[in-house]
Design a protein that fits this description.
This protein is of the alpha+beta class. The protein has 5 domains: 174 residues, Nucleic acid-binding proteins (OB fold (Dihydrolipoamide Acetyltransferase, E2P), Beta Barrel), CATH 2.40.50; 243 residues, D-amino Acid Aminotransferase, Chain A, domain 1 (2-Layer Sandwich), CATH 3.30.470.30; 58 residues, no CATH class; 79 residues, 5' to 3' exonuclease, C-terminal subdomain (DNA polymerase, domain 1, Orthogonal Bundle), CATH 1.10.150.20; 67 residues, BRCT domain (Rossmann fold, 3-Layer(aba) Sandwich). The chain is 36% helix and 19% strand.
Length: 700
Amino acid sequence: MKKQAPTTHPSAAQARREHERLGAEIAAHDQRYYGEDAPSVSDAEYDSLRRRYEELEAAFPELVTSESLTRKVGVAPSEKFAKVRHKAPMLSLGNIFSDDEVLEFVARVRRFLGLAEEAPLAITAEPKIDGLSCSLRYEGGALVQAATRGDGFEGEDVTANVRTIDEIPHALRDDPPEIFEVRGEVYMAHADFAALNARQAAASKPLFANPRNAAAGSLRQLDPAITAQRPLHFFAYAWGEASALPADTQMGMVSAFKRFGFPVNPLTILCHSAEDLLSHYRRIEALRATLGYDIDGVVYKVDSLALQQRLGFVSRSPRWATAHKFPAEKATTVLRDIEIQVGRTGALTPVARLDPVTVGGVVVANATLHNEDEIARKDIRIGDTVTVQRAGDVIPQILGPILEKRPNGAQPYAFPQTCPVCGSAALREIDAKTGTADVVRRCTGRLVCPAQAIEGLKHFASRNALDIEGLGDKQIELFFREGLIRTPADIFTLEARDRASLKKLKDREGYGETSARNLFSAIDASRKPPLNRFVFALGIRHVGETNARRLARHFGSFEALRAVAREALEGSEARAEINNIEGLGEVVAEAVGDFFAEPHNETVLDALLEHVTPQPMEEIASSSPVAGKTVVFTGSLERMTRDEAKATAERLGAKVAASVSKKTDLVIAGPGAGSKLAKAVELGIETISEEDWLKLTGQA
């Protein structure tokens, strides 16, 4: 079954711009959900954004390079906690929403593995708990560390807090592996949540929005004594690093968790067909209101760990698992106003301000309206009574107006033609080839618009970029307003200018001797960032964290990247080199070339590099004979599918390229190999068969 095509059919240029806008919006929502425990959109709206993103990628495969949706997990850990580097990444799950998508998930697994329709395939099904992911590390059977998911690679150390949760054992039973990381969900039961909010109200303290927020806020307390007063629970369902595995199936691992002393969800079962999965999904959905804790769907996982290993991952999520989400809940309210926010790329984003309404027990008051075409298509007007929906968080998706309740005189919304921040013209770019307008209206005052400059500085200093502790959004806004920081280079001259100034930072409101010293120390600590973080911090369009890592891994140094990018004109060999990096493509190659072709950007970079020295990206050590090599697969593969071959190569540390060039190290050629094989022969590149590849990589 083919993936569903987009509900609308934009041109390639329109799709690219919509893809970029959605990516930025999703990243902002991730920060609020994972990093601040204060989601700003409902699950339903967030899922809607991601589904549209995936639809665009299905119709325009070159867009798969952008990573906010398909490559990124969570956000960086809070500066309040010590950081924990996960030995094995804590990745997220992809979402599906319909019966057809369940059938497609099973079919896709079979296609990847080359399994015939009649071949047995066992898949587990378990409730998707709506809580906070946590990883528990045991050594010699004793709990030694607990960490949140964070950005999937680095989380927050919450060991002291986790020790207060009664359901999490301090010591494991029944002879566990020497090193064993158990992963699961910390959550709060409905009854406990109601009692907690009653205590909050009695003490005149703010109420929690929902059990998920209450659980996350409780686990991330700086004082473990506060966590100890909160009734938290835990379900174990996954694992990270392990010196040995106690079972070879998912269900076997769940049984082992129970033997070791962990609570596991009793509704986890083993299924043998898509029909079995759907049947269990409907059973759990019917039981949902009686469970006593929040769930927002059912998770399906291929049972065999050997097959899980073969299936591998697609950046942010495993191929062998997915989450089947429940439908959203709905309510009606009045749209009181539409405000315009300006992002770092100049995009004007409309935000709806609503009369507060309770949907599924949660009060919501705001919603993102995406763009002016969306407002016009739904004919949403200020004063309208609108239908909203949510699926577990705070802010809804607006489905549309209730026309019979529209007030007399309500006018169609007139989207601003000028930037509300700087007054510059706000235009929709016109595709030269098709003559169609971009879906996003952008401020043209790139160098004079404070909103764009401020958002760019926030991005530069953010946790996943240069990670400058103490230089958060409010500080950047203050420093920009007072003229202390206008460009990234200004950050690194702040201390020197402060010493020469009569008005010291330590004497400003909100600062003191210690906080000023800590900020300057944090700035100094960021002067030698990993190359991938530095590239990401620059804010190049279409270059998120994953693409920044790809560029850093390929070029090795910023000097090498810059030299090629400066020459990356359309049709050039330099453009082709960037385009040929696996996972990037023409859209990213064009964006990188455009960034370095802009004289203003080069001036900013020259000033910045006087203070910052990017370091080679830390690579995961690998003893594989293909680690670091650039490989190309061509022709038919008989022992594995093409997707599986690429996934295995990347897991072994190789770089998989889309075409053969002078920088290719190895070509794996199967029957029917054509132009790529001829090119390899012409360039004298080593070429081997699929069988030789399997022997070389220890798979034969």
